[in-house]
Amino acid sequence: MTPRDASEPNGSRWSDLDRPPLNVTALRRGLLRPEGLWSEVEVVQRTGSTNSDLVARAAKGEVTEGAVLIAEEQSAGRGRLDRQWTAPPRSGLFFSVLLTPGEVPVARWGWLPLLTGVAVATGLSRTAGVDTALKWPNDVLVTVGEEERKAGGILAEGAGDGGVVIGVGINVSLRDDELPVPTAGSLALAGAVGTDRDPLLRGVLRSLENWYGKWRAAEGDPGVCGLQEAYAAGCATLGRVVRAELPGNRSVVGEAVAVDGDGRLVLATEAGVQEPVGAGDIVHLRPA
């Protein structure tokens, strides 16, 4: 008989049969290739934040580009603006990757979270069979009933010398009574054809590898590699009237008309000017 693990709910890692653990052996077999991007895949049962852990390891030189760290549960997951990200064990995909795009000018690294958003949306659409959209800059939206709900988010942080750690959180099997806020959603609630996290994670990471390779080959030029066009095509923010909550307690209201070459959201304001927004919180005020 397998010993009971007191750290798991009810003392058993199999306590929720609808949420089996990830198969790290199968993930490594499917993702690690001699000429591929991914260099190692590790799954931990529980941690505070995969981003914090991977940033720390990168700073110590313990990992190389392509390291993937996945947690079955995060106790201190973070989103943009230091918001917390919480979910039941094994109910989603919570992972971070280390990228070192040395040949890409640092000025273009701001595209990495948007690139990841495109890759996540593309990978989930293919493997889960759900329609996804992106809220600028890096929220992943799904439709539950007739409502847009946030099912995922992305956070990028500098790591070590010339590295970037990108964290991704995706709600996969969360039920209505488990949602942290009413505006949250999950792939299951959006009618996903399957919630097996192994193929979902493989699909997302393969999509990320593909987009990152094209972006890097184009020296980070989002127009040349098609990233700018792909992001705009999948961005639910464009065409909407939004409010941008900016640093310094300033806000701007306008129609989101474009994502420029630097990845900034361009707002056409009532004053007749176009204002690019590079950082801030975006609130959708009206449908497109």
From TrEMBL:
<dbReference type="InterPro" id="IPR004408">
    <property type="entry name" value="Biotin_CoA_COase_ligase"/>
</dbReference>
<dbReference type="InterPro" id="IPR004143">
    <property type="entry name" value="BPL_LPL_catalytic"/>
</dbReference>
<protein>
    <recommendedName>
        <fullName>biotin--[biotin carboxyl-carrier protein] ligase</fullName>
        <ecNumber>6.3.4.15</ecNumber>
    </recommendedName>
</protein>
<dbReference type="InterPro" id="IPR003142">
    <property type="entry name" value="BPL_C"/>
</dbReference>
<keyword id="KW-0436">Ligase</keyword>
<dbReference type="Pfam" id="PF03099">
    <property type="entry name" value="BPL_LplA_LipB"/>
</dbReference>
<dbReference type="Pfam" id="PF02237">
    <property type="entry name" value="BPL_C"/>
</dbReference>
<dbReference type="InterPro" id="IPR045864">
    <property type="entry name" value="aa-tRNA-synth_II/BPL/LPL"/>
</dbReference>
<feature type="domain" description="BPL/LPL catalytic">
    <location>
        <begin position="31"/>
        <end position="216"/>
    </location>
</feature>
<keyword id="KW-0092">Biotin</keyword>
<dbReference type="GO" id="GO:0004077">
    <property type="term" value="F:biotin--[biotin carboxyl-carrier protein] ligase activity"/>
</dbReference>
